[in-house]
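Let us work through a complete example step by step.
Step 1: write down the sequence.
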Amino acid sequence: MNRRQLLFGAAAVAATAALAPVASAAPARTAPPPLGTAVRLPSREEIAAVLRRVADHWIGAHQDPGDNGWARATFFSGLTALHRLTGEGRYLDYARDWAEGHDYGLIDGVTTRHADNQCAGQTYLDLYALEPEPGKIAAIEECLHRMVAVDRPEKDDDWWWDDALHMAMPPFARIAVLREQSGQPDRAAFEEKLHRLYTHTRSAEGGPGLLDPDSGLWYRDKRFIAGLPGAITSPAGKPVRWSRGNGWVAGGHVKTLQALPPTARDVPEYRATLAALLTAAREVQRPDGFWNVNLADPDHLPGPETSGTSFFAYGTAFALRTGLVDRAAFLPVAARAWQGLAATAVQPDGFLGWVQGVGDRPESSQPIGPDTTADFGVGAFLLAGTELALLADQLAR
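Step 2: predict the structure and record it as C-alpha cells.
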C-alpha cells in the first residue's frame, strides 16, 4: 500500500488535510553515521513518542479498523503492545472495537487449520488478559483444541511456510498456559502439538526443513531450499532467504517465549534457535541499520526495508532484555536498527514508509520506497519499538 492509496481510501478522508502539506516535498533526512560509530538507543519516552506518532497516523487514516486477516491482526498485535507500554486508552478502544466487530471470531471459523486465520487470536488473547471474558478467546481456543485432539491430531504439516510460526505459535503457547491456569489437564498436549508443528517446519518441510543450519537463516518455503531441484535463487544464482520471512520467524519465537514459563520443556530449543537467527542477521545488517529484502544476496533488490528490519529489531531487543545475547555485540544492532527506522522510515507526519507489501519473496510488491506502507509493517514497527522502549528503560536503571 502506498501513500496515495492510503490517503484516498474511503476511511482516510479525515487524514487527507493533515497529510497534504508534506506530500509535495521530501522530508530532510540525516545520513547514517559510518559503520562502527557508536549509536545511542534513545530513552523510553523518546521511543514512545515516535510510536504514538506512527500509531496515531494509521488510526487517523483508518476509521474502519479493517478485517481480521493476518495482516491487520499483526497491526493490532503491535497496537496492543503499545497500549501496554503507554496505557493510552484510545489504543485499547480501537483494538476492542475491531475485535468486537468480528465477534472475536476467525476467518473460516473454528474448523480452520490455517495459521494465517489464527493470527487474530493473538489480539483476542491480549484483550482477554486485560479484561478476562471467556467469549473473547472461545473461538481461538476451540480452533486449536480441534487441532490438538479432534481434527486429525496426528497431522503436523500445516505450517509449510515460515510466516506460520509468527501467526500460530504464540496462540498455541498462550492457550496452553491458560488451560493449565483454568484447571484443564491438557496443557502438555498443546505444548506437544506446538512443538511437533514447529519441528516439521524447522526440520522436515520439503525434506531438510526450512531452517538452513549452515547459515542460521530460514527459507520462506520449500521452493527456495538450496540444493533441491529447481530451487528459486536470486538473479545472481545465490539463495533467497527473505528478510521478512526470517522476521516472521523471529517474531514467532519472541511471542512464544514471552508466553511460556522458563521451565517449559521446549524453551531452551526456542531460545537457542532465536539466538542463532539473530546472530546470522547481525552479520548481514546494513550500515544504515536496515536489512535488505534478500539476506543471502545484498545485490538482489538492495535498499532499506521496514517490515523485516522491524521484526529483527523486535527480536534483538527482546533477546537483549532477557539476556539471550551478548549486550556488547547486539546493543549496537538494536540501536542502529531503531535509528534507521526512526530517521528514514518514519515520516514527519507519522506515515511509515519503506514497507514491502504482501508477498513471499524479495520481488514481491516492488518497488518499495518512502511512500509504501502496510498494516502488518506498522504492527511490526510498533512491536519493535515497544520492546526497544522496555530495553531502554532497563538500561537506564
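Step 3: interpret the result. The radius of gyration is 20 Å.
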